[in-house]
Amino acid sequence: MIDLVRRPTAAWAALTSLALCGAAPAAMAQASYPSKPITLVVTYPPGGGADAMARLIAPKMGEALGQAIVIDNKPGAGGQIGAAAVAKAAPDGYTLMLDASSFSVNPSLYPKLPYDSLKAFQPVGVVALFPNVVLVNARFPANNVAELTAAARKSKDAVSYASSGNGSAQHLAGALFESAAKVDMVHVPYKGGGPALNDVIGGQVPLFFGNLASTLQHVQSGKLKALAVTSGKRSSILPDVPTLSESGLKGTEIYEWNAVFAPANTPEAVVKKLASAFQQALEAPEVKARIAQLGGDIQKGSPEQARKFIEQQMTLWGRVIKERGISTE
């Protein structure tokens, strides 16, 4: 006689056993992670700021994880090429991405990205925040933000500012300044930050919203005047320069930053290991010293805090891009 009660129970036990057997390898893989070198895709070319941050933290993260982290530069399209490659990578923790603040700009600047920025990636952590500096040519008559604003209000084309191109960090910083100061200025896009900065130093264009790290030498040499920094507090390396907020323009905190991401659906245990190694890397004395030297503030925090910050940045730049009608054309 067939035992109708016992038979399903036995079948259920067999299915449960199979499920546990299937889950065991995955759990073991996560426990032994990482068991081979990790690739860190940098979405910008060698020699730039993003590449420098990657090469600064990767060795320290590798030490904490017990595996080498190999840098793979995949530049192009404002970070889209590298990001698209990582979005398609296996979510196993062996392919990561280091991107820049353009990550939070691209969803509003490019309506047809090859990935969903919020859904395709899991933030591991933000490396550091680097403020911009409001810079003018040494011969430009304005010596503070109030005088710059007064000059810009004389007429719509009274003051022009240079940038490395439409939709660039410098362009967006200038656009946010315009919104906060209620002025309209002339945007002069260049093919790269170097040519733009050179023409500001030469006096062809009076104004530039530059990264503190890359422009500090020109302030120190007297070629450029720093009118304000865009951080929430004064910079330790330019202590006499006020913030934009101190100068009367609220809601103008602007930072360039870099963050490390994993593909979405990377196991939580793996993300936790990566986040722990990332935070250990930020604690390394040489990492702290270099970021401080560049005028940056290290960002400690969880992946959840990193995601919240990045989402706030997306909201900010989405608003600015819409208000000012910014496009890449």
Brief characterization of the structure:
This protein has 329 residues and is α/β, with parallel strands linked by helices.
Describe this entry's structure for a reader:
Strand 5 (160-163), helix 6 and strand 6 form a beta-alpha-beta unit. With 329 residues, the chain is α/β, with parallel strands linked by helices. Strands 1, 2, 3, 4, 5, 6, 7, 8, 9 and 10 form a 10-stranded mixed beta sheet that branches. The longest helix has 27 residues, at 6-32. The protein contains 11 helices and 10 strands. The termini are far apart. Helix 4 packs across helix 11 and helix 6 (169-181) crosses helix 11 (303-324). The chain has helices at 6-32, 49-65, 80-87, 102-109, 145-152, 169-181, 193-202, 212-220, 268-283, 285-293, 303-324; strands spanning 38-42, 69-73, 95-100, 121-137, 160-163, 186-189, 207-211, 224-229, 255-263, 297-298.
For the sheet with most strands, the description reads: 10 strands, mixed
User: Percent helix among the residues?
Assistant: 40-55%
* Content of β-strand: 15-25%
Q: Provide the gyration radius in Å.
A: 24 Å
Number of helices: 11
Question: Termini distance?
Answer: 80 Å
Low-confidence stretches: 1-8
The SSE order reads: HEHEHEHEHEHEHEHEEHHEH
Assembly type of the shown chains?
single chain
Decide which structural class fits the backbone: alpha/beta
Q: For the residues shown, what is the average pLDDT?
A: 91
